[in-house]
Amino acid sequence: MIAMLLAGGQGSRLGVLTARVAKPAVAFGGKYRIIDFPLSNCINSGIDTVGVLTQYQPLKLNTHIGIGIPWDLDRNIGGVTVLPPYEKSRNSEWYTGTANAIYQNLNYMEMYNPEYVLILSGDHIYKMDYEVMLDYHKANNADITIAAMPVPMEEAHRFGILVTDDRNQITQFEEKPANPSSNLASMGIYIFNWKVLKEALIALSDEPGCDFGKHVIPYCFGGGKRIFAYEYNGYWKDVGTLTSYWEANMELIDIIPVFNLYEEYWKIYTKSDILPPQYISADSMIERSIIGEGTSVYGSVYNSVIGSGVTIGKGAVVSNSIIMQDVVIGEGSVIEKAIIADKTEIGANVRMGVGEFAPSKLDPKVYNADLVTVGEESFIPDGVTIGKNTAISGVTEKDDYPDGNLASGEYVIKAGGVQ
Amino acid sequence: MRAIGIILAGGNNKKMGVLSQKRAISALPMAGSYRAIDFSLSNMTNSQVKKVAVITQYNSLSLNEHLSSSKWWNFGRKQGGLFVFTPSITPTNANWYRGTADSIYQNIKFLKDSHEPYVVIASGDGIYKLDYGDVLEYHIAKKADITMVCKRLPESEDLCRFGLVKLSDDNRVVDIDEKPMVATSNIVNCGVYVIRRRLLIELLEQCADEERYDFVRDVLVRYKNVKKIYAYPLTTYWGNISSIPAYYKTNMDFLDARVRDYFFHQYPDVYSKVDDNPPAKYNPGSHVRNSLVSSGCIINGTIENSILFKQAYIGNNCVIRNSIILNDVYIGDNTVIENCIVESHDTIKANMTYVGSPDNIRVVVEKNIRYDF
Lengths: 419, 373
Fold this sequence. Notes:
The structure holds two protein chains of two kinds.
Chain A (H helix, E strand, L loop, with lengths): L1 E5 L20 E2 L3 E2 L2 H9 L4 E5 L5 H7 L13 E5 L14 H6 L2 H7 L3 E6 L2 E3 L3 H10 L4 E7 L9 E5 L5 E6 L8 E10 H10 L8 H11 L4 E5 L4 E3 L3 H10 L26 E3 L4 E3 L1 E3 L4 E2 L2 E3 L2 E2 L4 E2 L4 E3 L2 E2 L4 E2 L4 E3 L1 E3 L4 E2 L4 E4 L17 E3 L4 E2 L4 E3 L2 E4 L11 E2 L4 E3 L6
Parallel strand pairs in A: 1-4, 1-6, 4-5, 8-12, 14-17, 15-18, 16-19, 17-20, 18-21, 19-22, 20-23, 21-24, 22-25, 23-26, 24-27, 25-28, 26-29, 27-30, 28-31, 30-32, 31-33
Antiparallel strand pairs in A: 2-3, 6-11, 7-13, 8-11, 9-10, 9-11
Chain B lengths: L2 E6 L20 E2 L3 E2 H11 L4 E5 L4 H7 L14 E5 L14 H6 L2 H5 L5 E6 L3 E2 L3 H10 L4 E7 L10 E5 L5 E6 L8 E10 H13 L5 H9 L5 E5 L4 E2 L4 H9 L4 H9 L14 E3 L4 E3 L1 E3 L4 E2 L2 E3 L2 E2 L4 E2 L4 E3 L2 E2 L4 E2 L4 E3 L1 E3 L4 E2 L4 E3 L6 E3 L9
Parallel strand pairs in B: 1-4, 1-6, 4-5, 8-12, 14-17, 15-18, 16-19, 17-20, 18-21, 19-22, 20-23, 21-24, 22-25, 23-26, 24-27, 25-28
Antiparallel strand pairs in B: 2-3, 6-11, 7-13, 8-11, 9-10
């Protein structure tokens, strides 16, 4: 079995966090990136051939994956291959949909001529043994197996819903139904018999925006293929929105988290080049937090997830926040309920997350919680005050903050950072 | 770089006591995330030395484990790379390495098969950053036969643990006292040498013919008047781990902001094997002050002026002060540890007290009973 990992999506509901990186490359849990979870699942499940399909802002993703050394995916045969869209002699196009992306890489799969193909998406946090799912697939003599988990009935309309018989064979398939007839939601993880997948992709090659949930599964279902649901009841989290992203991070700091990174079994691997231990100064206070390698803490940290190589200045207080890699937080700054992306520098005595909630003037669909969101490589000058539900990106100056203040619901999006 | 590298990591040191029971000196954990040999290995790779041999003998398993892949130090190359030489039986030799010179001599094929004109020999237990290229330039400028890196230490150090050298005005080595009873100088030999490859082969073959085996005693000391041996003065940090107090002090030096900044934040980096541990976790009740904490630690208690190596678990209400907790140690609730070095993989029960003193650091070795059920 080979795996095809869809990692080309923007993840637009993560707002400024994905302004310059694809969602799978967004940092998670202190030292990881979201794609580390499916990639580690692959190698832990014994899958050593993985094609990673990239499209949106792939630079960070490409450098992160490299030749796959952190996941032991640097192989003579197989290993990890990054698959970007490419020009063809005719019909050159971007990846227009999940299934279209796979279709454009038929040659890659053909090269390995596998019996089974595992389709994964690069934006979920979970640990799963795909080999167990494959055994299930084989035992059912299935053509397609879809991993599915029960979701609360009131949320079922957001998912692809599977209706099954008592042997878990799928009898009905509803994509984001208004009135769902089941609460078994597709997790976007599929095992296909290679021949079935190939036939379907070729048959649907002219379908615009060809998508697994919308087109391929209904097509196969209509063609009388044996499709089974593989019910999964472990931890699985879609981190597609700022709130769910924040919550999933915060779950890691529980005393015994449901999603436990500290188990020796089923390790999560990542590319980490910062090795030094973290330093905690004599005036620091840290509680209920996880902190990455090479970080120096001179202030206080409560209920937070801090990445690698971060510096938290003297007298600074960080609480209920997610701080990604190589961020610098100036002395005396008070950070409350913020998500601060890689390499951002925050001046001294900045107050973040003050005041009352106000609806976002930038995009209420994306920004609808108390969170302050700061994009990567941003700069925030000394002494400013920033309200709730705000978004900041780029190198900002004092003038961007009227009276040194960014009110709740406001935003500052500047050019700069990586240019 | 016109040199190959040899790292001498074969010896034991009785002064390290129980800490060298299960590992080679060069495999001793250092500064939270590293092992001692990482410093000289990183110096080699950062000095663009492309081909390095590590010579090991005593408890070589620990070192072999650490060096299982050369890629972490950028030695996973087709040209050059990392070679680990343990003693082997050949038709002409059935001996262990009988000394430093002998250990290189037994691998003289490595020297003969190379084409680089110079050799950098380094000991595997020095904690320092040094561009060996600078030493080589100095060596060439001085028209030296052998250049040895030396460090001037304060008189207050216990100098008799070291090889002490006396220098002429232009840094030529005029006398070498190996671990004398009374200190004769405060300039110590750091165990890093640059020498022309052909000269080294010649000297080693001569030694072997005369059944002499030690590089310092049988080469440096005997040849000091006929060969030009120069000292390269090392002016930056040099830490050593030649005794338990020195090991404790060198680790604790990393709590000093200057030392930490020099090694962790200034170019070039020190490399080590990547372990894939999760970030460190601070639970309610944790209180950490002036300490280094490594990846994979879970902390529920109080830590002051200490170094936690990887994957330490600290129970509720524990108090750890002025101590070094090596890798993968489990410490039960309410335990007090002061001025101790806790050996790796120890299981420390709840409600225990281990107290050493600043002048007499206690080494705690307990059985790993976590999995005995």
